[in-house]
Design a protein that fits this description.
Blueprint lengths: L1 H14 L6 E7 L2 E7 L6 E4 L9 E8 L6 E9 L5 E7 L5 E5 L1 H4 L6 E10 L6 E10 L1
Parallel strand pairs: 3-9
Antiparallel strand pairs: 1-2, 1-4, 4-7, 5-6, 5-8, 8-9
């Protein structure tokens, strides 16, 4: 019995899987319009072009359970058709509201299909991490 317990205690640490989770909330002004995580398949937000006012802003609050203390977080919205970055914010911390005014997106002259993403810029020669947060479609 002792051998069984000892082998069990030695084997268990190697069978466990460490899992990290990135998660984010999206607000239109003060109203929550989406909550997503890395397991959400194809997160999509649709907004009616006619209902967007000049003061409307989308806020993204991004968090994860493995924050990087020596990283910069680059939040941006880019046009899906050509990849042009239209709005960008760089922050040292996560868990804070990142604003994206909608008036510029509403008046964009290309396709009104956008992607919001975060890029974790790691310093010291390590490759950064790109994560698409959601797709924004203005109809």
């Amino acid at each position: 019995m002792k051998k069984f317990i000892l082998s069990f205690l030695l084997f268990v640490p190697f069978t466990g899987q460490c899992d990290t989770l990135d998660y984010w909330s999206v607000y239109l002004n003060d109203s929550l319009i989406g909550q997503f995580n890395v397991l959400t398949p194809d997160p999509l937000l649709r907004l009616d072009k006619e209902s967007i006012h000049s003061t409307d802003t989308i806020f993204v609050i991004y968090n994860n359970d493995h924050p990087c203390g020596r990283c910069d977080y680059y939040f941006a919205i880019k046009a899906s058709e050509n990849g042009n970055k239209l709005i960008a914010e760089r922050r040292k911390k996560i868990g804070i509201k990142i604003p994206f005014p909608l008036v510029g997106l509403k008046n964009y002259e290309g396709s009104l299909d956008f992607e919001c993403f975060v890029y974790e810029d790691r310093y010291g020669g390590k490759e950064g991490v790109y994560l698409a947060l959601f797709r924004l479609l203005i109809q």
